[in-house]
Amino acid sequence: MRPTTETELAEIVTAATAPVVLRGGGTRRIGEAAGDVLETGGLSGVVLYEPGALTLVAKAGTPVAEVEAVLAAERQRLAFEVPDLRGLLGRGGVSTIGGVVAANSSGPRRVQAGACRDSLLGVRFVDGTGAVIKNGGRVMKNVTGYDLVKLMAGSHGTLGVVTEVSFKVQAVPEVEATLRCEGLDARGAVAALAVAMGSPFDVSGAAWTPADGALVRVEGLAGSVDYRAAELMKRLGAGWHRVEGAGHWRAVRDVSGFAGREGAVWRVSVKPSDAPVVLGALAPVMRDVVMDWAGGLLWLLVEDATPGAVVRAALPGGHATRVRGAGDGPVFQPEVPALARVTAGLRAKFDPKGVFNQGMMV
Fold first, then answer.
1. In a domain, 357, yes or no
2. Does the predicted TM-score (pTM) go above 0.85?
3. Which residue has the higher pLDDT, 203 or 143?
């Protein structure tokens, strides 16, 4: 099923009596669900773009590349740095902007600009009864009542079919600079990245990998970047130097170092100070790691046979999601009972027939 209008989509959902699997471009889905496939790729196109107001509205099936090209023509961009996970997951296809919202997919710039949900101004979606719901709008601070915009971001298609999204966007900075230090272990990197993030120099990226070392990014006007980069290097100490180009950040964003390699991939969110603890506990089964968000996000490549319980037992707090690999146990972090009751209540309200991506987030 591939509707080309919101009305056609609503009619399909209204008539549905069995589960359906929602799919945009199929490039970033994790978890499994059974049922007939309902594609949103037919709902495509940029509906409104006002560069002066830093606002863009697009239908859910619009390719991310198309959105980025429209913005680039005016030297603007999506603030949250959309990851391209096709290499990591071994998939082809075309990533859609609705899929990005459904996964709340966010890259290294989240430490400065927030996640995908923080750039969302409004959303339209079809709920499980076939009703078309609109929440938010095209300007900031106009949401009253329940903030369904934030609720839909990261819901993985379990509450409704997103049909249209509106974003605040930002100007592309004049220059960017990356500071790099090789030779730091995870604990040393977390300490250094904490210094950078605690500085007043508006860091827009803070990451570490065993191969590339620690990375810190600043962006803006050339004079400002030169000053901030120099001051940061003074604070960070010996071993840091400035490098140009965005290649390091694309590799962190897309976790491209794991592409084509054997092993299961886990996405782990923890307090940055806990990152070295997690890595130490999983050292016997770990093959590689990408640390983003100053240690708050860990991408782990572990041995295929590693039980999910072992990964989650290594976390002092936070949550772990199995992104790639068969494994055992649930894909998503099990919810505590109180939160599970809230989740069940939301699903009963928005999808009373139980047709959307059943079993996806368990």
1. no
2. yes
3. 203
